What does this fold into?
Amino acid sequence: RFEAMMAQGALEEVAQFATLLPDLPRDAPLRKALGVPELLAHLRGEIALPDAMTLAQAASRQYAKRQTTWFKHQLSQALTVNPQDYDQAMHQILSIMSKTSLTG
It folds into this structure.
């Protein structure tokens, strides 16, 4: 997924943001977005692009793992669906999603 983002101009986008907002504090959310710290390090000449991509991919996997762990502990009961109830559960989930902004 990160490689697709790079192919679609992620590095150029980060470079433009760095140019437009050079004084943005290091703890600003934009500077902490997945992939941004690694790409900024590359743009500053601190690491090679392949290394930045590898580090960004690792950070993405770690974030996904933290999300999975959080959901597992927060919603363990809510996410339990018996196989025989799958169709009904999917219908309910899609109904909820259609009423929110989760589906775009």
